[in-house]
Amino acid sequence: MNRFVWPLVAVAALLVFLVMGLKHGDPRALPSPFIGKPAPQFELPTLKNPEVTIGTATMAGDYALVNVWATWCVMCRAEHPFLLELAAQKAIPIYGINWRDSRLEAMRWLDDLGDPYLASAYDEDGRVGIDWGVYGAPETFLVDPQGTVIYKHLGPLDRVIWQREFESRINSGGPAK
Amino acid sequence: MIPEIGQFALILALALAVCQTVLPLVGAHRGNTAMMGVGRTAATGHFVFVAIAFACLTYAFLTDDFSVLYVANHSQLALPTLYKVSAVWGAHEGSLLLWILVLAAWTIAVAYFNADLPDAYSARVIGVLGFLSVGFLLFALLTSNPFDRLIPAAADGGDLNPLLQDPGLAIHPPLLYIGYVGFSVAFAFAIAAMISGDLDQKWARWTRPWTTVAWLFLTLGIALGSWWAYYELGWGGWWFWDAVENASFMPWLIGTALIHSLAVTEKRGLFKSWTLLLAISAFSLSLLGTFLVRSGIIVSVHAFATDPTRGFFILTFLAVVVIGALVLYAWRAPSLDSDAGFGLLSRETFLLLNNVLLVVAAALVLIGTLAPLVVEMMTGGKISIGPPWFNIAFLVPTLPLIVLLGMGMHTAWRTQKTASWWRLLRIPAIVSLVLGVVIPLFIYGRISVLLVVGCSAAAWIVISSLIQPVRSLLREKGTAGIPRSALGMSVAHLGMGLFVIGVTVVSAFGIESDQALQPGESIEVGGFEFHMVGLSNVRGPNFSAIEAEIEIRRDGEFVDTIRPQKRQYLVQKSWMTEAGIRAGLDKDLFVALGDQLGQNAWSVRVQYKPLIRFIWLGALVMALGGLIAISDRRYRRSGRESEARTRAAEAAA
Amino acid sequence: MKRLFALVAATLLVSSAFAIDEGKRFDDPELQARYEKLISEVRCLQCQNQSIKDSNVTLAADLRREIARMIDEGQTDEQIAEFLVVRYGEFALYRPRTTGKTLLLWIFPFLLVLLGGYALARVVKHRMSLPIDDDITQEGQ
């Protein structure tokens, strides 16, 4: 093969790569580094009662959803009815982390729209949010009975995503991958 | 009705572009003059219809025709007229139409200004350009039609992205596209030459001025974009190595290499195949940039609505164009070897060094842009590659490039005697080193190795580019004594020197400070006192703003008043920072309003930016150099005549 | 004037996702420089392509605060990078680390220049062996 063919080979490889890249999906989706790792420890006062605290220990022993929400988050409002539905079915214990919010407004939100959470932790300064690697509410983590994070969903939760990503993982009893 | 006319005009333009492709190429193959002649006529018609389509879209914007989806999404009743016009290319569909218009304009420029090219060659060039037009017209009509209707029509539009409502950004895309698309001419010349198999030096001479024009517009376009980012994005940076910036920078780097390599090919008949490859690459990288920016494959600050269908279309087109060109190249290039030699110390060696380093620089930009995608596809993990990597990686090839540039300019073709070379360059070299210490230490009061290197390099380029013009000025003949192309080279390199000094000084001595400020208070940055006099409410045509009045003083003496704004655009509800800048050749003083802190105080970002104007001034001077170079006499006359004259001149000398 | 600020305040409440802070100030200029450099090299994950230094969103402000805290505590740049990588992955760093899969990136620039230099040396060596005189038209300068 003469050296004048090399540019052709290089470009063909680049093109194949770009086709694969195009099929790869959303470049903005960011995998959570916590999948398969123990859920980050935290201990925070609950939203409704600053005297009482909840934390990682509260959730141990069962599958649990940890939902990061805030009243300023538009998409949180969109997923709220589905969270209520899950809570009504008693499908799974749901814990909230109220992220970077005002306590008053957050309590009013739960009064007005209904409260799907067993309890919501009140993360006023966003420290726990950072420990959980949260970068945009809503985010929903699935934690297994041993306290390992097995899935994270970014964006509003709905029935389709719940069945496809969450139920399947709970049923198979561990990290899918 | 008007939008339908525009749509119809686009379809007719496509039909004519097909004629413009097929007939001249077949005609040239068969030696049929009549068929070849159709090319120019078809190209003219094609241009006229694209211009009609463009005018129709502009008309729809000016008359607020919100029954056109694109207009409804990107304009608004209260939008100032200037921005209604620039909104035409403010988003994907319209900017594609602008791209098509620019390509058609380049085509007729080639068709009419190159009347003295051999018929068959000219026909092939027009045919190849026609093929590119067909691709882009199909792209517009099939995936990105700017004339799609919105039924029922909207009462008011969604407004142009507030970031784009700025005079600098209104003209940035046209300049950039003239540059980007202009490399298609060099590409077409290369393809036409390869199809015919007739690749003597005339090819390089024909290509050179066109490439230089494209390059100078691209230079201006990139510089304007950088200037805009500086004052409009609010953070005072001038380059972030964002994918969109890289997309325009890679063709620029290769285009710069091409200009230099064309010089060798024209002068000595050397490196023909390499020059061809660069001509193909410059335009291919323009296409690749378009793909990266519009397919959404890479995260970027730019907000082109992305769509995988469009991605696949551009990628397919890119594949056809580039693979076609490279197959032709693999077939023709082996026969182009020339057996001319040159010495180790010669202009040829330096130009080769220039090419290698520029290509390495472009390859690094490409690697840095695509590596996150590679890593993700191979490991599933995501990484970011940002300014810290690019700044270092880019210096590796460009620092030697800068040093070599000053030497190469004063090295003779074929072979250079070392003694006379050293005699000419030693004084400038010593002066540059001295200046490299003096500038940072005595003007700015601090010194480091990198600073000495940067300042010496800048001084070195500036001095060495001035040697030739100054010498001929001192002689009787004045600057008329040097050919325009040599003068253009000196000026362009001078611009490079100004750019380097600007970058070095501003990155070493620039000061940024985020602080709280309220009316009546002052803060001190870089020896200047910034006093906030007060805040007021301002209304624009489609925004409301809070404006701060800030007095700048130095040692108690009044310097200037600047008025940074925080604007809220009424339709899109987004906040924009309009920085207040006291611009000066020696420094910029820059204040941007951040957020309100409590009752009356604001966070402000105050910056002291010494010599930052040299960055854009340098680019402007580079472009001027290009302009001077193409005004050289030998491009004004037909090849034959010019050759005869040069021979005569040489005989006389 | 008062009405204006009422309006601004209301807007801020609605979109409280916007941060309010005035950059952290260290007494030690060296620490200040380190802080500024660090925050300019951390990616704002809520934004498209911006550093947390140049972004006004809440998370950027929170991360600036955390980084300032860690500098105050005397943590090294590596420890701070590790803190971010554990939580957000390598994606959060604009300066790829010089370990593991990103090490190669830092070698590339030098590798390419060397490769280019080698190719160039071969071409020049070949050309030096060829006759310099040619009968190709010469033009002024």
Description:
The complex is a heterotrimer of chains A (177), B (653) and C (141). In chain A, strand 3 (64-69), helix 3 (74-89) and strand 4 (94-99) form a beta-alpha-beta unit. A 5-stranded mixed beta sheet of chain A has the order 5-4-3-6-7. In chain A, strands 1-2 form a two-stranded antiparallel ribbon. Chain A has 177 residues and is an alpha/beta fold. Chain A has one domain (33-172): Glutaredoxin (3-Layer(aba) Sandwich), CATH 3.40.30.10. Chain A has 6 helices and 7 strands, in the order αββαβαβαβαββα. Chain B has 3 domains: 1-165, no CATH class; 168-413, no CATH class; 512-610. Chain B has helices spanning 2-30, 33-62, 69-74, 81-86, 92-113, 119-143, 167-196, 201-232, 243-268, 272-295, 308-332, 347-379, 387-408, 418-444, 449-474, 484-509, 613-630, 633-636, 639-652, and strands spanning 511-517, 522-525, 528-539, 543-554, 557-562, 565-569, 575-578, 580-582, 587-597, 601-610. In chain B, strands 2, 3, 4, 5, 6 and 7 form a 6-stranded antiparallel beta sheet that branches. In chain B, a hairpin with a 3-residue loop joins strand 9 and strand 10 (601-610). The radius of gyration of chain B is 26 Å and the shape is globular. Chain B starts with a helix and ends with a helix. Chain C folds into 2 domains: 2-95, Helicase, Ruva Protein, domain 3 (Orthogonal Bundle); 98-129. Chain C has 5 helices and no strands. In chain C, helix 2 packs antiparallel against helix 3. Chain C is elongated, with a radius of gyration of 26 Å. Classes of the chains: A alpha/beta (177), B alpha+beta (653), C mainly alpha (141).
Key terms for this structure?
heterotrimer, B: 653 residues, alpha+beta, six-stranded antiparallel β-sheet, four-stranded antiparallel β-sheet, 19 helices, 10 strands, globular, disordered C terminus, C: 141 residues, mainly alpha, Helicase, Ruva Protein, domain 3, 2 domains, 55% helix, disordered N terminus
Question: In the CATH classification, which architecture of the largest domain in chain C applies?
Answer: Orthogonal Bundle
Helix content of chain C: 55-70%
Which class do the helix and strand fractions of chain B yield?
Answer: alpha+beta
For the record, the count of structural domains of chain B works out to 3
Order of helices and strands of chain B: HHHHHHHHHHHHHHHHEEEEEEEEEEHHH
Percentage of β-strand residues of chain C: under 5%
Tell the overall outline of chain B: globular
Supply the number of structural domains of chain C: 2
Number of helices of chain C: 5
N-to-C CA distance of chain C: 69 Å
Say what the CATH topology of the largest domain in chain C is: Helicase, Ruva Protein, domain 3
CATH superfamily of the largest domain in chain C: Cytochrome C biogenesis protein
Work out the helix count of chain B.
19
Label the structural class of chain C: mainly alpha
Q: At the first level of CATH, what is the class of the largest domain in chain C? A: Mainly Alpha
| Mean pLDDT value of chain B | 89
Helix-residue proportion of chain B: 55-70%
For the largest interface in this structure, which chains are involved and how many residues does each contribute?
B-C, 80 and 61 residues
The assembly state of the depicted protein chains is heterotrimer
Output the helix-strand order of chain C: HHHHH
The parts of chain C where pLDDT drops under 50 for at least 5 residues are 1-20, 135-141
